[in-house]
Design a protein that fits this description.
This protein has a single domain, classed as Rossmann fold, CATH 3.40.50.2300. Helix content is 46%, strand content 19%. The protein contains five helices and five strands, in the order E-H-E-H-E-H-E-H-E-H. The protein has a five-stranded parallel sheet, sandwiched between helices. It starts with a strand and ends with a helix.
């Protein structure tokens, strides 16, 4: 079964690149430019196996999206990988607190594939 990954990033180049790379390695990737678009899709019953989530976005931050996901019993178990341009202590602390992964931009595809594999395995184990 093909794993579905939703990407939320306000940068169109990153969105497009991630979507193309993930589709090329066998995932079914869908990309959104903000959290509102993501939630429209989720509310219509489309649930991914994993979400790649940019931290710093203008309309709704990745942290806000994560909190909203966590507050909904239908979405709280979707694994998240935060994608950040900053290696901040906050990102590290939040990732540890919520048991989620993060990857710092720029990253390479093998690093991302490894994290996706770990996150999907963790989801199956819970």
């Amino acid at each position: 079964m093909v794993k579905k990954i939703m990407i939320v990033d306000d940068d169109p180049d990153i969105r497009s690149t991630l979507k193309d790379l993930l589709n090329a390695v066998g995932y079914k990737a869908t990309a959104f430019d903000d959290g509102y678009e993501l939630f429209k899709k989720l509310e219509n019953g489309k649930k991914p196996n994993l979400i790649l989530l940019d931290v710093m976005m203008p309309l709704m931050s990745g942290w806000e999206i994560q909190r909203k996901l966590n507050n909904n019993p239908n979405w709280r178990n979707i694994p998240i990988i935060f994608v950040t341009g900053r290696n901040t202590d906050t990102a590290i602390k939040m990732a540890k607190k919520y048991g989620i992964y993060y990857i710092q931009k720029p990253f390479n595809i093998s690093q991302l594939k490894r994290l996706i594999s770990l996150a999907l395995k963790k989801r199956r184990d819970t």
